[in-house]
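Last lecture ended with a question: if I hand you only a sequence, what can you say about the shape of the protein? Today we answer it with a concrete record. The protein is homogentisate 1,2-dioxygenase. Below, first the input exactly as provided, then the predicted structure, then a couple of comments.
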Amino acid sequence: YDGNGSPMLVEGLAIHTYACNSDMDKEAFVNSDGDFLIIPVKGQLDIQTELGRLLVFPGEITVVQRELKWKVTLPDGSATGYIQEIFGSHYELLNLGVVGSHGLANPRDFEHPVAHFEVDQTNWEVIYKLGGKLFTCKQDHTPFDVVAWHGNYVPYKYNLDFFISLGSLTREHIDPSIWTVLTARSMTPGVALADFAFIGERWDVAEQSFRPPFFHRNTASEVLGLIKGEFGFTGDFVPGALVLESGFGPHGREDGPYNAAQDMELKPMKILKGTQTVLLETSMMMTLTEHATNSNRRQSNKGGARGLEAKFLKYKDQILADAKAAGLGLIPGL
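The predicted structure:
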């Protein structure tokens, strides 16, 4: 879909979509470029690794690190989803700071496999991804013959329903960084190479506020994906789709949702019921792949043609009256 950097530079990331309808048989895969964060949208993934097995459902995520051998079978017959791949770094939990000892994604909720080995002396094929290219080799035994292991370089999975969302109890819309599940450091101190955030069902109680994200620009590039439900972003944003907001690109709600949020009664309400949205953020600018650019499924953003109007000008008469009463001069252009 898109990305930046390179595994050969030991820094960067790539965002992929996947669709599969066939099991891997006597095959294994090794990503020599980086770590995969896999986000199933439809269909379970039965992932067998050198260090054991993980059964991953939609609504869960899994991380398989660089250079580990693994294969996938499909209990449901087919599967689709997203992958965030990072080069030169590893995913880790946030430093919670003033949040305290627990919140957001808690370490206790992550699961890792236990040793699981097979005795198989038949021919296998191992597929390596190196420098963005695929290579194969043959061997006369299964790669999944590790009897026992110790250490912490191990794949893991996490159920997004366990995530503890934070938000404002008074006013204003909070930056979505408070929904970060995992982060990966860049070579620049204090700057993330990639963040994985989760936006799900939660209570909204902010007062004296425009509750949805207001019109803004980010230094980071954002890619939104939908696992299930409705996010209300655009009618084309369905499970399996991706939306890219480039760094410093202005964006916000369309006119209809904007007006509804502006006029709504600000009472406590549960939002995004039954919805699971993922946010893939990076400090880097992203380059679209040729497939993403030229696909007939691409939906161009209509930008300034979406029926937006200058809300400020609706109150021109009141503004001029207030300025005159305060002894201020005319505002140029009004």
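Comments.
1. The domain at 166-317 is CATH 2.60.120.10 (Jelly Rolls).
2. The chain has three helices and 20 strands.
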